[in-house]
Structure formats: structure tokens, C-alpha cells
Amino acid sequence: MFIYSLKASTLKFFGVVGIAVVTLVALIFLIPTYSSSTTAEIAAMNESISFDNVKNVNDGIKFLSQYGWEVDTIPVEECEIVIPREFDKVMTSYNEIQKHQGLDLTKYCKKTALRYTYKITNYPNYNGTVYANIIVYKNRVIAGDICSADAKGFIHTLSMPSQE
Questions:
Q1: What integer pLDDT is reported at residue 164 of this predicted model?
Q2: How, if at all, do strands 77-82 and 112-119 pair?
Q3: Four-CA torsion 58, 59, 62, 63, nearest 10 degrees
Q4: 3-state secondary structure string, the chain?
Q5: What is the dihedral of CA 90, 91, 96, 102, to 10 degrees?
Q6: Using CA of residue 67, residue 127, residue 92, residue 54, what is the dihedral sign?
């Protein structure tokens, strides 16, 4: 039986620790930053927007105007919906959109809410039909999106495209 042992000198130990620290600092500075909204940016944006007191169709129009949207005064649809208990793939993706604007539907599972759908009249650089959806629970907007009616359309947060 052979026993082999090494004794690291203090100089070698601090050399390895120093290299590890330098590598960690270099990685921190080299990791790219993305332009997606940070929590602070979302909070700052939402401070200027009131999500409360949306009691009817006209209040929904006022809410959307805070983002700069102009909509028809008569909504396309007004209906009750139930937030599902468990989210499937589609609902999980939709909730990710909500999280990007500081909202989260997981708090409202199994709750009945109202969904208002409006036709947008001032969507920039797009000629197709575009809708704004807001979901309201107890007079508070808990979710919202902007989407096109085209089969190969889009869906995004309530912000104007130039602001995203």
C-alpha cells in the first residue's frame, strides 16, 4: 500500500484563490446584459399607471389610454372568464407576458374575472386589426395584452411597441 500526500504551500493556495476570483470577476463583466425590463423599470413604469378603479367599459378605455392606446368606444367583447387552477403551456406563456409588465395571474387561480376586448385604432406601422384585452378582477386590472387578429399575428404587453 502506497500513501502519497501533497502539501500545498501558502503561496500556491493564494495563487489558486486569486485566479478563481479574477475569473469570477471577468465572467461577471463579460455576461451580456439584455434590454428586457428589470424589476425596477417595471415598478417605475407601473407607478405612473393606475390599475385600480376599472369598473366598466369606459374605465377600461381610460386605463388603455394611459399606455397611449386609442380604442373604439364600444368593446368587441365583454365576458366573464375563470382563471384556471393549473396553467397549461398556452396559459404559462400568457402569464410570462404578464410578468414582463409586473403582473401575475397565478395569484388569481380559480377566480372569475371580466375580460374586455377593444379594437385599437392607432397601432403604429400595422394595417391589420389589433385588439387590446384587459382582465379585471374586483375593479383591478390583473392582466392585459395587445394582439393582432391575423393567424400569423402577434401578442405583447400593453406597452406601445416603441416602448418595449
A1: 45
A2: antiparallel
A3: -140
A4: CCCCCCCCCHHHHHHHHHHHHHHHHHHHHHCCCCCCCCHHHHHHHHHCCCCECCCCHHHHHHHHHCCCCCECCCCCEEEEEECCCCCCHHHHHHHHHHHHCCCCHHHHCCCEEEEEEEEECCCCCCCCCEEEEEEEECCEEEEEEEEECCCCCCEECCCCHHHC
A5: 150
A6: positive
* pLDDT, averaged in runs of 10, over the chain (164 residues): 67 74 73 50 62 94 95 95 94 95 94 96 93 96 94 91 63
Contact assessment for residue 88 and residue 114, using Cβ atoms and an 8 Å cutoff: no
- Tell me, what's the pLDDT at 40? 47
Q: What is the rounded distance in angstroms from the CA atom of residue 102 to the CA atom of residue 100?
A: 6
